[in-house]
Structure formats: C-alpha cells, structure tokens
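Changelog-linked ticket: 4'-deoxy-4'-aminopyridoxal-5'-phosphate example.
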Amino acid sequence: MIPLNQNLNTLKRSGIRLYTNLAKTVEDCVMLTLGEPDFDTPEEVKAAALTSIFQNRTHYAPNQGVELLRQEVAAFETFRGFECTPEQVLITVGATGALFTALLGILNPGEEVIIPTPAFPLYATIVTVAGGKPVLLDTKPDGFQLTADALAKAITPKTKAIVINSPNNPTGAVLSQESLAAVKAAVLGKDIFVICDNVYQGLSEEKLPDLSLDADLKPQILLCQSFSKPWAMTGWRVGYLVGEKDVMERLLLLHAAEVAAVPTFLQDACVAALATSTREMAQVYQRRREFVCRRLGQMGLSFPEPKGAFYVFADISHLGMTDEEFCTRLIKEAAVATVPGSCFDCPGYIRISYCCSDDALQKGMDRLEDFLKKLK
Ligand code: PMP
C-alpha cells in the first residue's frame, strides 16, 4: 500500500461498534450499547424538512449556516446564559463536525489537548489526526471529578486545549462546581481553549453546572452542541460550534473547506427543533436512569452517580476478569450487550445505555442479575 497520512497509523475501529456487531450475532440479545435515543424525531421537525424540500430549498446553504437557524441558535444559547450573536455561530455536521473544526482549527503539530477520562474516544482520534497529542487525565482516582492537583500535572507549555464533557459519556456524571472552578483557575487568561462538549446538557431537566456559562472564560471557550440527542436526530447530522467572533471567522474557512455547508433543508428542520420541547424525553430518561441505578444497586454494583446523558458506568473490576471479557461473556452467555470501559480509556467498568424500551431494559437488568449470580 502507498503510505498514508502517518497520523492515521494509531487509529482503531470503534470498540462500541465492535460489541454491537458481536451482539447482533446472538439471538434476542438486549442491546444496551447504543448511544442514541430510541425515540423518533418529533413530527414537526420531519414536517419542516419536507416543507423545505418542496419549497426547493435544496441548493447550497451559506458556509456558516442558514441565517435564521444561526439567529435561533444565538437566541437559544443567549437565553440559557451563553450570550452570543448569530455571527459567532457555525452550523456543523453534528457535534462531530464541531469538534473536528474546533480541534483541527486550533492545533499545531505536537500541541497537547487534555482529555479527562473516561472519555468519548472521538476526542483523541481527532487530536491525533490533527497532529496533536492527546493527554489523558484519569479522573477515576478523584471520583470522576477534576482537581487542581490533577490539572496541574496534566498542563504543560504545550497545552492548547482541554475538553470538558459534562454530563459525560460514558459515565453520565456531571462535573461539580468545584471541578469547574479548578479548570477555570488552571486555564484562565492562558492561551488554552476550553472545548465544552455540551451534547448531553439538553437531556436533563435539572439546571446543571456548565463551564460554558462562565463569563470570564468566554474568550477561551469553544462550545460544541448537537441536535442529535435532545431531539432524537442522530441521523440528521446537524450541530453547531460557537466561539469568539475572530476565532469563528477563521474556523469558518476550515469548515467551508471540509463540508462547504450543511444541507439547507436539514437546517430548516433544526429551526423547528429549537421550537419543540424536549421535556418529555428528558423525563423518560430520568425515570429509566433511576430504574437502572436502583437495579444495579440491588445487584451490589457501584457506579459514579449519573445525572444526565443516557448511560450508567458500572464497576465490575472485582469480578475477576477484564471488562472486555465481561462484556463478551455477557453477550454470549446472557444475551445482554454493554460496552467495556476500556473503549473510553477506563478499564474495569461497563457502560450501560438505557436508550431502549422499558421492557428491554427490564429484561436486560434481569439477565445481568442472573449472570452475576452465576459468576458467584
Ligand atoms: N460528543 C459526545 C460526548 C458524544 O457522545 C457524541 C455522540 N455519541 C458526540 C459528541 C457526537 O454527536 P453528533 O456528531 O451526533 O452530534
């Protein structure tokens, strides 16, 4: 093979998909692997897309995004406390596109990005592709929180950014005000970006601590957001990136070179999404979260307290096998699929997603309980 970009050499296939595919080979396997809503996209959003298509809004959109959507996003963000103007908003291909544009746009070769783990594997992938260096900061010893000490050890003169994902994938845990204060103290006024991956903020009814709302840090913040989770629109591939105006003017050029623009009719549908309440779905997630936590507690499994997203991250390290072995056996012997913590740089745990029907969840928990009893 003709040599490719050497930055791709260390990239691996997604472990999440690997276990999902294994589960598909087992009859009647309960899938607790997926990180995507089991709900359908709201009817009004689908209708808006169709109307847009029939109005022939099927040509190139502006590189930065449809003006009305940027206005609505700016209003939505300003309402929740992140004051911004439409000029600061870039409509992207999901939060994936926002993260890609942000990281590729800020990193020079060898510059470091602090990624608190457990973490969604995409961050390290993009940093690596961009020629940067992922610096993994294990939060487990500090109860899945961030401390001044841990941050001080991770920061070097080459640090260019830190990624904050709260509520977190895979734990569902939320960073405390103390953790966010520690991040602020460590980076304020330095040439370090704070990349807030807020894709799970919209799934909670509760107002959660949120570093993107810190006014002092504003010049350093790049906010990545997505329509995927709160409106069950994973397949639509629309998200956005918001940052300081001068930064966004430069990142827009990169985005224009990457994708030109997000399709117009998808953006029109997102305007309808912003006007659609996500409350009902958030309530369902909360109910399921409480159910899973109760059942895992009864099984004697511990986990960091999840307050958002749709995952619980259970500790299986005392069971005498690796998390990969556990997940493989759980699929093959009990027909329940979960994802090993190793996929998120945190071995010894399994990620349980509750994006499935109540019946499936009940069945999954019953089978997990039986499996654990058999192990004893
Ligand atoms: N960030 C996190 C933490 C995620 O879990 C995901 C998807 N699972 C994304 C970003 C990407 O989301 P999307 O590209 O669908 O908007």
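Closing comment: Example verified and attached. The chain has a mean pLDDT of 96. Residues 35, 94-96, 120, 165, 169, 197, 199, 226, 228, 234, 239 surround 4'-deoxy-4'-aminopyridoxal-5'-phosphate (CB under 6 Å).
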